[in-house]
Amino acid sequence: MTKNVADELAGLELPVERGCPFAPPAAYERLRERAPINKVRLTSGGQAWWVSGHEEARAVLADGRFSSDKRKDGFPLFTLDAATLQQLRSQPPLMLGMDGAEHSAARRPVIGEFTVKRLAALRPRIQDIVDHFIDDMLATDQRPVDLVQALSLPVPSLVICELLGVPYTDHDFFQSRTTMMVSRTSMEDRRRAFAELRAYIDDLITRKESEPGDDLFSRQIARQRQEGTLDHAGLVSLAFLLLTAGHETTANMISLGVVGLLSHPEQLTVVKADPGRTPMAVEELLRYFTIADGVTSRLATEDVEIGGVSIKAGEGVIVSMLSANWDPAVFKDPAVLDVERGARHHLAFGFGPHQCLGQNLARMELQIVFDTLFRRIPSLRLAVPMEDVPFKGTPSSTAFTNSRSPGERDMMRIKAETGLCVGSGQCVLTEPAVFDQDDDGIVALLTDHPDDQSAAQVRHAVTLCPSRALSILRDA
Fold first, then answer.
1. Cα–Cα distance between 16 and 317 in angstroms, integer?
2. pLDDT tens-digit profile of 308-333?
3. Model confidence pLDDT, tens digit, residues 267-282
4. Model pTM?
5. Exposure string over 211-246, b if 16+ CB within 10 A, otherwise e
6. Which long-range contacts (CB under 8 A, 24 or more apart) does 328-335 make?
7. CA angle, 111 then 113 then 114, to 5°
């Protein structure tokens, strides 16, 4: 390692924002090259061990001597202001923040809701949901379509709402609050979003306690009542976790997966030719993008040696799942997207006792979306160059945002110079949905950004214009 690189890493504060969805930050790569475990400074203050090797990451995540309880002193949090800590410590812990027997007792009753067998029964309903939203995409007159709003967000939102028994009419509320909690807004806004969402879920569980339905929460309430262990606060924490984690990450992964495949047409060809390869493609996309990173923080409760490094009791550890999933010792040429890699041993869903509870549901949704979308819209392509696709990257998550406004994102932009128009009307005859004439015979534009279906006709109309009054400003 050169002196310049060493100096750069010495002055580095982690985590850093991910500037590109197609690669980890360069600093993460250099840290892993230096050693799979490094002591680093945190942007929030203090120090922690940064784990970026795949083998070492699995070792930490599977070791019960590392605590997940964020309320403990010394836990490596990215935000350490007093108000946030007080809010965190005043609420019952989420399942992700529990350890040992407490965690097992909270997780075990819910596991049955997410088994492969139980979720298989949901496949026809998920297929119906995906088909419904793709039907709407095909039926709309607006081109291009905003994938985030049209498909990526509503599919997992509706699926998790039906599974949990949450009114889908409320999805805008919990979606906006969830987004705010993981965005780069102020800490005050994040705390407010957390409190508002928690209050909504508290009310939801209260209603289900008096008016149960056929859903996961109602079944948990019935089980607890039968056992004499009804725990309202615990159910609120469970509901908060499942609702917030059950749609945002899958929605982000749908968008990233679609863009990833469109940006690697040779890989998309493999999937289109044999849908039986889609499960492998999903695993590779999960590895490649690893949208949740740095969320697997731990606190050593006793002295532990991992990968030859002595970690002392009371020291914080942050596992970078993104770096681990790009470890060349495990994944050859990790920067290459290879849908036939067979990357099932990635860490995108974590590892050990806290491995993502809903991973099988996420896999099913992704497989159904990719297979259905590319089968029903085989000509699907990006409406703008890849570098213009709006992207949000934070130290803990990565995704694409909603597309730009229609005027900015449409593929074709045209202009009509009325001063040159001689009123031949040939353009109107060629594409009446785009061109019109006023009472003086001068051509007017009904829209300056025609949709895909009109594009060829508009190009033809431009060649017919005898006065060259028509021009194409953009034709991506």
1. 16
2. 999 999 999 999 999 999 999 999 99
3. 999 999 999 999 999 9
4. 0.79
5. ebeebbbbbbbeebeeeeeeeeebbbbbbbbbbbbb
6. 329/53, 329/54, 329/55, 330/54, 330/55, 331/54, 331/287, 335/23
7. 70
